[in-house]
Amino acid sequence: MTLAVEAADMPRRSSRALAILRALLRDPVGCSALIILTFVLLLALFAPWIAQFDPLHQDRRAVLKVPSLLHWFGTDDIGRDVFSRVLHGTRISLFVGLMVVTLTMSVGGLIGMISGYFGGWIDTVIQRVVEALDTLPSLVLSLFIAAMLGPSVRNVVIAVTLAQIPRFVRVVRSEMLKVRGHDFISAARVIGASPLRIMLTHGAPNLMPTMLVLGSLAFGVAIMTEAALSFLGVGTPPPHPSLGTMLSHGTRFIGTAPWLIVFPGLMLTISVLALNLIGDALRDVLDPRNQQ
Question: How far apart are CA 286 and CA 76, in angstroms?
Fold first, then answer.
């Protein structure tokens, strides 16, 4: 019986996802942000084919060249093409953001659902741990973890994920407390569905709109945190290109070669702004008060 109900729900969920996408495209700000983010994603995805220079190649004959038709964003102090490094740095930033959001939504969402569904001593223990992690700002916690683990892309993902999980747990728990009181949850218990099955097949779909909004905002936070950690020297290790590392390196030439910080800064700003605008648009689209 439950399998039949779940099979009937699948077309409903897909149609709901399409309805959300259509509503997002009808929103001028959300649509514009989605187009910009898609453009940035395509640049990062096809960076090896778009960029004509190796981001690690050093050309001593082209040191600190101003932007030109050959080097669109100029070159740095050891002759590396800034355009190539910006594209590949964006590629790393988006990869970190995607991994952080995926892990945070999976782990934080599951922990939050467990906390909200079971309540009692399980909820108490989880919330005390979350409150302990919340005593430090997320950037400070990420910096502490990354400094202990050492500079690498993998460690950045771990550090940012651990810093973002508490926020997801708290929000998902509060939403799960509302969902577990509905009649369909009681009906699922009556027919013998296990708690895990109830959370995954009934709880998660109802929590997904909230998690989508949180995920889009966390994506931007993850990109900014990765750049901040790289700027401080505990993020993506050199010589791999990172927007944060490029900003840190370019501050020494801000007066003589401003393009070293202008273009990485613009790419970082555009990416994070687009993600935040999409998050705001999703929040408006999914708000029941705005639905007629």
Answer: 45
Chain position carrying tokens 């220079």: 53
Amino acid in position 24 = L
Reported as type and span, the H/E element at residue 33 is helix 28-45
pLDDT at 120 over 80: yes
CA atoms of 154 and 150, how far apart (whole Å): 10
pLDDT tens-digit map of 157-197? 999 999 999 988 998 998 888 888 777 787 888 887 788 88
CB-side neighbour CA atoms (13 Å) of 50: 17
Cα separation, 160 vs 288, whole angstroms: 31
This prediction's pTM: 0.85
CA pair distance 193, 205, nearest whole angstrom: 16
For residue 16, CA distances in Å to 11, 25, 206, 208, 268 come to 8, 14, 11, 11, 32
The string over 17-36, giving b where at least 16 C-beta atoms fall within 10 Å of a residue's C-beta and e elsewhere, is eeebeebbeebeebeebbeb
Q: What is the DSSP string of 38-103?
A: HHHHHHHHTHHHH-SS-TT---TTSTTPPS-SSSTT-B-TTS-BHHHHHHHHHHHHHHHHHHHHHH
